[in-house]
Write a structure and sequence with these properties.
By secondary structure, this protein is α/β, with parallel strands linked by helices. The chain contains 10 helices and 11 strands. It is flat, with a radius of gyration of 28 Å. The chain starts with 8 loop residues before the first helix and ends in a 9-residue tail after the last strand.
Amino acid sequence: MSRFESIDVTRLRWFAGVAQELHFARAAQAMGISRQRLSRTVIELEEELDTKLFVPGAQPTQLTAEGEELLAAAREILANVVEEPRVVVDDDAERLRVGFVPGVTVTKWERIWRERFPEIPLEMLAVPMREQESALREGRVDMAFVRLPIDREGLSAIPLYRELPVVVVSKDHPISVFEQVSTLELADERMQDAADLDDAAMTMEMVAAVGGAAIVPHSIARLHSRKDLVYRTVTDVPSTEIVLAWPEDRTTELAEEFVGVVRGRSARSSRSPSGQESKEPQVKAQPRAGKKQPAGGKKPAAAKRGGAVQKPRKARGR
C-alpha cells in the first residue's frame, strides 16, 4: 500500500491541480476555490509529509523531487476513485455561508464547526474586498469576515483582531536591515499603489520588478510572500481591523452558533443556543443515610497540622 493512499482525496486533487498548472492562482480559479485555501492545503500537506512539495520561492512554480513523486501517486490514486453522485442541496435546507476577504485565515473555525455541527453544511466563500459589503447586503453570504471600514448601518459586527501595517521592499533594499520603520524614513521611496488589496499579487510583482515599496496589512504581505521580497512593520500608519459581520435582521441561531465558535465558546456554553438546550438542572447532593448533619448544615472543623487532617490518637495502656 502506498504511503500516499491515506491522504484525503480532495487534498490530493487540489495538489494535483497546482502541480499540473504550476500556478496557484490559475489552479484555484479552475477548481473554484480561493487561492488562500489552496495554499493552506498544500502547506498542511507538506507538514503532514514532512517535506517540501514545491521549490520555495521559485518563479515560476516548480515541483521538488518529492512533489513529482506525489503527483505520480496522486494520478494513479485519483484514476481509481469512483466518483460519488453529487448531492444537490435544497435551497431551504439548513446551512451557513460565511465569506472571508483576502488575508483572513478561516481554517481553525471551519474545522471546529465541522466537528461540532457535522450535519450542518458550512460553506466558506472567498469574497473580494470590493464586494465584502454587497455580498452581505445582497444575501450571497450569511456572514462574512470583513476588513473595516464598511458601512455599519443595518449590520451587526464583532471585532476580532487588528492587523499591523508593513512595508514591502526587495530583499536587498536598505530598509531590509531594520525591524521597523516610520513613514518619514519612506519619504523618498517610490511608493507603489496598494489601495486595491484584491490586486495585491500584482502590487508585489511591481515592487519586485521595478523597485520601490508598498504598504499593506501584515496578513496580505504574508499571503503573497515571495523569496525576493521582505516586509517590515511601519510604526506610524493606522492598523486595520478584521470583524465578523452579518445583517441584523438575519441573526439566526446558526449565526449565533458561529459567533460562539469564533469567540472560542465551548460546545456547552450557556451563551450559545445549543448550550442552552443542553443545560441540565443542578441536583443537590443528599446526606448519606445513617449520618446526622450538624445544626446549621456545617460540618465540624477538623484539627489540622500542616494542612493534613489529624486523626485522634489511641490512648496507650501503661
